[in-house]
Design a protein that fits this description.
This protein is an alpha+beta fold and about 750 residues long. Helices cover about 35% and strands about 25% of the residues. The protein has a six-stranded mixed beta sheet. Strands 10-14-15-13-12-11 form a six-stranded mixed beta sheet. A hairpin with a 2-residue loop joins strand 12 and strand 13. Helix 1 packs antiparallel against helix 2.
Length: about 750
């Protein structure tokens, strides 16, 4: 605690030297939001640190100043001389208290109530007392600028390079044994110095965790809750600057866990939980990263409430929110200005915090992963690199060129061989499937115009927007490197994060994973989790546009396509009353709208619903398009759901449900069918077009005042409450019990009949 207190005193001193001038400048220019934000951050930081250090007087003063500055930021108050004098008085008293804490001298608190009262709009003006210089105690520590440590580390790297070059030259000639011995001593000294310089930046995470018990105790007491804190892995070492930058994010997360997550004792008792909540804070090393985890056993995040707040604040439109995946909706807690609280308290409600948390963590090359378990708690894992001074990298090769890639951006490295890894081309876009997981592919050689061959090695890269595969010729080495800024012309390309000089002395560029995705034009389209009917469809559903064998241009949802590949026509035969395709030892059904003709080879779409597979013969794949919002339903039988307009042309939309069911489509009336989706996407992709082609209007959520004629649900998914009759679908062809009234999901006639029967109930 003593070390933390000394750091707080030193940092507050440094900030106070500049903040008084900022307040005066802000009085002269009240519209300067930058200065106002700087003053607000200062008092906000002081208030947060008081939770660690148990400084109630500082907490009371800084909280009062924060409330006033927040009112100014919201436009509720206008800064004038009286307000500025009051804020200056608070800042001066904060400085005096800090110096008194450092020196151990007592300081009177009799006029602090008057300082706080002076912040009120109707307060009587007070004469601004001259600021008295405080006697400072001798500092017991030396604060070094991080840039100086970086310069030391860079100098050590240059020494290593010089030593390596000298060693290479001596190996190429006859060397006096005494010179060789001197070089060996130099090498050991340089290695030891490099380790020493590195360790000057390392500190145990205990410096970050030691103040948590008191903060948790005080916060929970303030909120009338009982919380048991468990700390694990406090002896893990982390870069000192990382610890400093992690301090505020950790405070925000833990206070939010207690305030928003863990329920009150009476509520926990009604839920069957222990009356004392449990909060676990742990640290562990995983490769070149430190994982800091904060987990509670509270109620988790109410995603629906977060979405409603985002809509209320106007951060996103209703359409955008409806198109978001569950993960994207959960990430809304990081949106600036968004809070789930309706009332501002001393702990939360201003919408300031989680956006800053993510910004601070991403600034140091880290990321946050949320795991939400509604009703059971929330787990937040913060991934940060070990140190900022040395970056752990993977060296990749493209032809004769070498590039570095940060290891924290890499999920795995795979070779393109065997059935586990497959590269497909859909239109003009490349995609890769790794053990059933599909993602975009960017060939680094093609992007840099260094070659056109298919990459033999894939580096799976994780970015904030999404994951993709980076194709390279080879993975050469793993090195710890010092990274420096590259020239503006190089950085302007958007694909580089800096330059580095490895031990071989050859300069090398560091790749930016997110920048490469942007330059390559990758679009990580969110999966629609809650869609309305196709005639109200949310734009952004991708589909493959293709020319069919009969010359008609058609489209099919991209989610149904596993791959597009050419096959020899002699592998296709009419047998057993149907067209079938031989693929190795397997035989799968094939749909073709016309004769194959004299072709020796034909392109086929390999379609899958996740359990079964079939093929669709086509003439040529054209491109990937986005389905429009409106569709005209088709009439009559056949596997066509309807007609859409793409580029001014009428395009038939293939109905995958009809293909897999093998039954014609019939047209009935237009009742509303509520799809109670299970998250797999099958109902939206397969069932919805089929039912709408049959005359139903399918929705996944009812609007205000809307009623459903019938609802559909899978037998292995929880069925939400609904006032509509429910038809249950099963995945297997046969029922497991005699009294099982569920319908096989591809039994189209039975499904249509069951829907009609339920509507009549």
């Amino acid at each position: 605690m003593d070390d933390l207190l000394q750091e707080f005193i030193a940092e507050t001193r440094e900030t106070l030297e500049a903040i008084s001038g900022e307040i005066v400048a802000w009085e002269a220019a009240p519209a300067d939001d930058g200065r106002l934000d700087a003053i607000f951050r200062f008092v906000h930081t002081v208030k947060g640190s008081c939770g660690f250090l148990d400084l109630p007087r500082l907490a009371r003063l800084s909280h009062a100043a924060e409330d006033v500055l927040a009112a100014v930021r919201d436009g509720k108050r206008t800064p004038n001389t009286a307000l500025v004098n009051a804020v200056l008085g608070i800042v001066d008293r904060i400085g005096a208290i800090v110096e008194a804490i450092d020196s151990g001298a007592p300081i009177d608190n009799s006029d602090e109530d008057l300082l706080i009262e002076a912040l009120q709009p109707d307060a009587r003006p007070r004469a601004q007392a001259p600021t008295a210089l405080q006697n400072r105690a001798a500092s017991r520590s030396v604060r070094l600028n991080v840039e100086l440590l970086d310069h030391m580390m860079s100098g050590m790297s240059e020494m290593v390079l010089a030593r390596n070059e000298l060693a290479r030259r001596l190996r190429d000639s006859d060397v006096d044994p005494q010179v060789e011995a001197a070089l060996e001593r130099l090498s050991l000294t340089v290695a030891d110095m490099r380790d020493t310089v590195t360790r000057t930046r390392m500190q145990k995470v205990d410096a970050l965790f030691s103040a948590l018990p008191r903060m948790v105790r005080d916060t929970s007491a303030e909120l009338g809750k009982s919380v048991d804190l468990v700390i694990e892995g406090a002896d893990v070492e982390l870069d000192r600057e990382m610890i400093e930058m992690m301090r505020d994010p950790l405070v925000h997360i833990i206070r939010n866990s207690i305030d928003h997550g863990i329920e009150a004792p009476t509520e926990r008792r009604l839920l069957g939980k222990p009356m004392t909540g449990r909060l676990i804070v742990s640290a562990r090393q995983s490769g070149n990263k430190i994982l800091i985890e904060i987990a509670d056993d509270g109620k988790g995040i109410d995603v629906a409430r977060i979405v409603a707040k985002a809509s209320e604040k106007g951060l996103y439109s209703v359409t955008e929110l409806a198109a978001m995946t569950d993960a994207a909706k959960l990430d809304l807690i990081f949106a600036a200005g968004l809070s789930s609280r309706d009332v501002v308290t001393a702990i939360s409600g201003r919408g300031v915090g989680m956006d800053v948390v993510r910004a601070n963590i991403e600034q140091i090359g880290g990321r946050i992963v949320l795991t939400n378990d509604p009703g059971r708690g929330l787990r937040i894992v913060i991934h940060v690199p070990l140190t900022l001074s040395i970056l752990s990298t993977i060296i990749v090769g493209i032809g004769t060129q070498r590039f570095a890639l940060p290891r924290q951006a890499i999920e795995e490295i795979v070779m393109v061989r065997g059935d586990a890894v497959r590269i497909d081309t859909i239109g003009d876009a490349a995609a890769v499937t790794v053990r059933g997981r599909r993602m975009p592919l960017v060939s680094l050689a093609k992007l840099f115009r260094l070659g056109t061959d298919a990459p033999p090695t894939l580096v799976i890269v994780a970015t904030r927007e999404g994951d993709y595969a980076l194709g390279v010729d080879a993975v050469l080495d793993a090195e710890e490197l010092v990274v420096k800024p590259a020239s503006p012309a190089v950085m302007a390309t958007g694909v580089y994060a800096g330059k580095t000089l490895p031990d071989n002395g050859l300069p090398m560029l560091l790749l930016d994973a997110s920048g490469i995705a942007a330059v390559a034009g990758l679009r990580f389209t969110p999966v629609v989790a809650a869609a309305s009917a196709i005639d109200e469809a949310i734009p952004g559903v991708p589909a493959l546009l293709f020319d069919d064998l009969d010359g008609q241009r058609r489209a099919i949802a991209l989610a149904v396509i596993d791959r597009v590949e050419p096959v020899p026509t002699d592998a296709i035969r009419w047998s057993g009353g149907a067209m079938r395709l031989s693929v190795g030892d397997a035989i799968i059904p094939l749909h073709a709208v016309a004769d194959l003709g004299p072709r020796a080879e034909v392109a086929v779409l390999r379609l899958t619903d996740g359990e079964s597979e079939m093929a669709y013969a086509i003439a040529e794949a054209i491109e990937i398009v986005t389905l429009p919002a409106e569709m005209a339903p088709a009439r009559g039988g056949g596997p066509i759901a309807g007609v859409v307009s793409i580029g001014g042309e009428q395009i038939e939309l293939v109905d995958p449900h009809a293909l897999f069911a093998g039954q014609p489509v019939t047209l009935t009336s237009l009742p509303v069918c509520l799809l109670q989706v299970d998250g797999s996407g099958w109902m939206e992709t397969f069932l919805k077009p089929a039912l709408e082609a049959s005359g139903y209007r399918c929705v996944t959520a009812l609007e205000a005042g809307e009623t459903a004629a019938v609802a559909l649900a899978m037998d292995d998914a929880p069925v939400p409450k609904t006032i509509a009759p429910v038809v249950t679908l099963r995945r297997g062809r046969t029922a497991k019990r005699d009294d099982d009234a569920s319908i096989y999901r591809y039994d189209r006639p039975a499904l249509i009949a069951a829907l009609a029967a339920r509507r009549a109930m």
